[in-house]
What we know:
Layout lengths: L18 H9 L3 H16 L2 H12 L14 H12 L1 H27 L3 H9 L1
Helix pairs in contact: 1-2, 4-5
Amino acid sequence: MTTTKRFFRNKRDGKWLGVCAGLADYTGIDVVWWRLGAVLTTIFALGPILPVAYIATGVIADRKPAELYRDNFNPEEERFAMQTRRAPLRSLKDVHGRFRALDRRLSEVERGVTTQNSGLAREIDSL
């Protein structure tokens, strides 16, 4: 999982030039919303300005290097990467919270294994 903060055209996941897919990778917002926004903005607001900017970006921007593509797709890692790009501090707090919860669970397991359970010991001795 690589999270880069440089904009690249994502030709593999893109439909035409990969600009919307690149914006989705860069910002962490789903590509469907970028495409929908581009179409609606072209129709209702900017007219020909957005398609010209799209083509210019598609020609000028670098393609995403092959080593940045994930060949073994894991949806959980992808979701985490997108959340990290959207809100890095919140993602850090979430990871910290997960580690605290795991640490608590591990300490409970250790406590259960290491404490002397006299009732269990008597039952085992009676067998």
